[in-house]
Design brief:
3 helices
């Protein structure tokens, strides 16, 4: 309900070669206005995916690469990134584990099992270095309470925590990037976590 869409309707007449098929009218409807983050993410994902397929320099398996030294995440094909974003990884005493991980599960919203019951949108749990899932994951900045819109914890996290080592070991991203990363991620997909580039 926060997002108001308008619709614009058009019709067009197709052509074959230089001849218009004037008896044929094809309707088109476009959504205009502010899109919810997930819808916007789908559009950006498809655009990014399309661009990556156009470029011959983007071969290889899709993966996420996280660089902790400057708190950056990268969506990639092989070792070529087509999108980067700011992350927030583990604090000094609850560090994000480095290594070669894979996406173990996905949930649009995960709720922590212990108090204070953080809500973590766009959750992707990780199998860390081939081990069973033990609670680490990628997700949007968490919130407390019933909604992001009313959570001061969430607002502070977006404003002050991104780009810093403040989490309990998970890797957080912002409200615009998290749904995009979630759309890109697939079960079993590699997630490489490094302190810095080799």
């Amino acid at each position: 309900k926060r997002y108001k869409w308008a619709y614009e309707k058009y019709t067009f007449t197709p052509a074959i070669g230089e001849k218009w098929l004037s008896a044929v009218k094809i309707p088109l409807t476009f959504k205009v206005g502010e899109l919810p983050p997930k819808e916007e993410a789908k559009i950006r994902f498809l655009s990014g995916k399309l661009e990556s397929y156009k470029l011959k320099d983007y071969p290889g398996e899709k993966n996420i690469y996280l660089r902790l030294s400057d708190q950056r995440g990268f969506m990639r094909y092989g070792d070529k990134s087509f999108y980067s974003y700011i992350i927030s990884s583990g604090a000094w005493d609850t560090k994000t584990p480095t290594g070669d991980h894979t996406i173990y599960n996905k949930q649009e919203l995960r709720i922590a099992g212990n108090a204070p019951y953080y809500r973590m949108p766009y959750w992707m749990g990780l199998s860390v270095n081939g081990a069973p899932f033990v609670g680490y994951g990628l997700h949007e900045v968490p919130y407390l309470g019933t909604s992001k819109e009313t959570s001061d914890f969430y607002a502070r996290g977006l404003k002050y925590d991104l780009g810093k080592n403040v989490s309990h070991g998970c890797v957080r991203s912002g409200d615009k990037d998290a749904p995009f990363v979630f759309e890109f991620g697939e079960l079993g997909m590699p997630v490489y976590v490094r302190n810095s580039d080799d």
